[in-house]
Amino acid sequence: MKVYAIKREYDVQYFKFLKDIRTLPWWDVEELVKTKNLQQCLHDLEVRFYEQRLWRYIKYQATLNFPDWKPHRSKRTVKVDPVTGEKDITLHVRRLRCMKNMPLKEMEQDLYKDFKGWVFNPKTCEAVITLYNGKTGF
Asked: CA-CA distance, 87 to 113, in Å (whole number)?
């Protein structure tokens, strides 16, 4: 697929280029460099040479608290309630530069001579292959 994926609790975020993780908040990038991820497949030919070097640089910058390579730092707005004196802190995080849909590889459609088509099964939420039945004609 040649995309980078970050698995979250409820979804997955896909990034076309590694440099696009710069749009993530800084605390997210700090946690990301601590996990095993791109380092596992550095010797794979699918990972581009430039992005291998960039990932090493990002990890190095994270150890120094990002002096040069700066991920997104959100702006803080602090409002104080005049009656109670409580602070209301709002973080303004900008939109990520991630892909909305994962690119899918094309799948061979004529994989079997009795193949008729795909049907979505709402009970299992799966795509089911339908085959031609010679007895019923369907």
From this structure: 68
Helix and strand element counts for the chain (H, E): 2, 6
Q: How far apart are CA 4 and CA 71, in angstroms?
A: 17
Ramachandran angles phi, psi of 118, nearest 5°: -105, 140
pLDDT score of 38:
55
Q: Do residues 116 and 31 make contact, with C-beta atoms less than 8 angstroms apart?
A: no
The residue extents of the domains of the chain are: 4-92
Q: Angle at CA 61, nearest 5°, toward 91 and 67? A: 65
DSSP 46-77: TS-HHHHHHHHHHHHHHHTT-SSS--B--EEE
Measured CA to CA, the distance from residue 96 to residue 8 in angstroms comes to 14
Lowest mean pLDDT among 12-16, 18-22, 82-86, 107-111: 107-111
Lowest mean pLDDT among 45-54, 76-85, 86-95: 45-54
